Predict the structure.
Amino acid sequence: MSGAAGYGALLDALRGVTWPARRAARGSTSGTHRSRLRGVSPEFTEYRPYRQGDDPRRLDWRLLARTNRAYLRITSDRATLSTLILVDASASMAFPERSAGKWSHARRLAIGLTSIAHASGDPVAVAVVTPHGTVRTAPRTRRGVVTECARVLDAATPQGRVDLAAAMHEPHSARRLVVISDFLGDAAVLLRPARALLGEGGEVIAIHVVAREELSPSADAVLATDPEETDIKRALTPDTASTYLRQFAEWREWLAREWRAAGAQYEMTVTDEPADRVVRRIARGEREGERAS
């Protein structure tokens, strides 16, 4: 794939999809999301009596002239929601080795989410976390931002170990942070910067990418190599497969529970699931298996 053109079918499938904020946004720039700021936007919601300390500029002077009563005209402002999509480019994301299925799926999810954020008029950026640091685009709303993000993603190759937590701690203006990873590192460390953003009123979406081969390993005996520590090898045989599957399932349940307990949106997706379906589910705020009523 090269640029957004390589994702044409995905972008067509997501045309018209919206991604509303889960919380009222704090931003002051006009946009499509409900804002925590109440002010002078044209979307009227209610009147309330003027109280000492209120800003007199928000008085409805016409109503005051007609009734001799002081009322504030309360409106619901709309704000943009700056979005940063952080993508794990560690070696484990290149699994399976022949297809690099997790990395391919992660790129498609990132582009899909970039496109619907951009369509809503939100500043959106992509950051790829590599062993040599984070490569990121600037948050923009201008035309061509999806192509710019696609080029950064397509230029990266998963390898080595990365520090996702450090990348999450890096200064950024995003109020909505998306983390796309297989979370095979120290997942607990990632919850700290996530909780910090959530505590400030932001949103965090954790997208857990799992390869189908991890859920259904080959029946043949294999020598599994840790992709980030190549000197670590473990035998995966029919006798040990059941233990592996049980422990992997327990770990996924723990991961989902921890992210959700922190207040984040957690979504697991398998590499053979259509990316547009996952993106729609994330945008609706559903969990896997749920359907919008």
